[in-house]
Design goal:
Helix content is 49%, strand content 16%. The chain has eleven helices and eight strands. The protein has an eight-stranded parallel barrel, surrounded by seven helices. The protein is globular. The N and C termini lie far apart (53 Å). The structure holds pyridoxine-5'-phosphate (PXP).
């Protein structure tokens, strides 16, 4: 079965925040992504609100017609926000203050009681919970123990190996992913995947079995900026020429 695509629009807000103005509007990007056929929209509400903010998340809840997936740290503050917003799914991720993007998977094994508490809080409001983890058996077991519905496997190591053209490493990462996907499904978990996927490397991940949904952000926003450039310049030239 074809995998679903959830588009992460954080970097539309990154462009907006570069100028602290109103455009580009993440809700408009979400609408266009949905019209193009994606199954859902993902945003990461970071503790420092460096791109997506609370207002964006509330607006998206009212406008996204597919699935809204809220990525967040497993903190009490974030759980409270999610319980007000009621996204379809929360993906719990680790969060460091100085990281450029989510750096690794959540160490569920080491943080089991904190994560299980967050999962319970979210479940009590009917929100599905996914845990962003490395493809390692101990993390899958811990995710099951913490009560998650889904795991999202981190594909960043695969993507890095692909960029380095390290074929042995690519094959190793793909086999680790497939092995842990199968183990997760056997354990009763559903499986998503993402991080670092782009137009060059996505094919091999799309070929893996039993992944429901791919979460892709940076490469889609980057490509949108490039394929939209010609039209944006033509529209501006037309305005200038008409005076
Ligand atoms: N999945 C998770 C859990 C993430 O934190 C991110 C980045 O925000 C993504 C997927 C998307 O990664 P990328 O922007 O590299 O496509």
């Amino acid at each position: 079965m074809a995998k679903k695509l959830c588009v992460n629009i954080d970097h539309i807000a990154t462009i907006r925040e570069a100028r602290k103005v109103r455009e580009p509007e993440p809700v408009a990007a979400a609408l266009l992504a949905e019209l193009a056929g994606c199954s859902g929209i993902t945003v990461h509400l970071r503790q420092d609100r460096r791109h997506i903010n609370d207002g964006d998340v509330h607006l998206l809840r009212h406008t996204v017609t597919g699935s809204l997936n809220l990525e967040m740290a497993p903190s009490a503050e974030m759980v409270q926000i999610a319980k007000q917003v009621l996204p379809n799914m929360v993906t719990l991720v680790p969060e460091g203050p100085n990281e450029l993007t989510t750096e690794g998977g959540l160490n569920v094994e080491a943080r089991i009681s904190e994560i299980a508490t967050a999962v319970q809080g979210l479940h009590s409001s009917g929100i599905l919970v996914s845990l962003f983890i490395e493809p390692k058996m101990e993390q899958v077991k811990a995710a099951r123990k913490a009560g998650a519905n889904y795991v999202e496997f981190h594909t960043g190591h695969y993507a890095d190996a692909f960029e380095r053209r390290d074929e042995n490493e690519v094959e190793l990462e793909l086999s680790k992913l497939q092995e842990q996907i199968s183990f997760a499904v056997k354990s009763g978990l559903k499986v998503n995947a993402g991080h670092g996927l782009n137009y060059r490397n996505v094919k091999r991940i799309a070929e893996l079995s039993d992944i429901e949904e791919l979460n892709i952000g940076h490469s889609i926003v980057a490509r949108a900026a490039l394929v939209g450039m010609g039209r944006a310049v033509k529209e501006m030239l037309k305005l200038i020429a008409s005076h």
